[in-house]
Amino acid sequence: PTPAGGLGTAASILLGGVAGLALLRLVADFDLYGDLGNAWIVYLDDDFGEFWGVTVILLGIGFLAAIPVFLTWFHRVRMNAEALAPGRHRQSPGMAIGAWFIPVANWWIPKQITDDIIGASEPPGAAQPPAGPYGSGPYGSGPYGYGPQPHRPGNGTVTAWWITWVASSVTSALAWMLLSSADDGDVGQARTAVLMFILSDLTLIAAGICGLMAVRLISTLQDVRLGFARPGMPGTPMPPQRPPGW
Fold first, then answer.
1. How far is C-alpha 226 from the chain's CA centre?
2. Most buried residue, 125, 134, 146, 238, by CB count within 10 Å?
3. Tens digit of pLDDT for each residue in 149-165?
4. pTM above 0.70, yes or no
């Protein structure tokens, strides 16, 4: 196992940068939406406004910078989780990278991996699921350990991150489809596409914020569990504490 804190810090900073660039594009989207509503504006496929085009390019650069660092961090914490809980994961370590590139499946498989990483990184004895008919497992009680999951520190943050990320990716795809299929002069469809971009930006901003919080949480849990950091040490956020008896 290797410390996750350094990569986690870099990944969280870059995720915050993506959120900031999404905010910049949100401003451009509102501006473009208003311009398309003016009667004297004629929509052309290649006329999006210089500012809007620049924000799209900047956001793309932000993603290109964040993706390799985030994936490296995600693979590292998955490998660490394997050492902490060998054989108790639903996906292989390689899927920590590969799953993100599988269309549609990348909307839930990485979430499974994240949940398993958190479960493996908790202090021993924390949030153990009740035994089911065939025993308990890292994924809850029920047949072969599958079923309702116990409450875990960070579940809310990770779930919020995932919901907003999926919502952003879906609305962004719809926006580009609408924009690419709009006929010349079809201002109505162009405005609908820009409205979808606005929704995508709003959810992407939320996903970036929740994502950096989740990265910090997971990095802290693992580094404390592996002995690379102490709870409450300078620069290390205090991991969530479970109430007595849980």
1. 24
2. 146
3. 555 555 789 999 999 99
4. yes
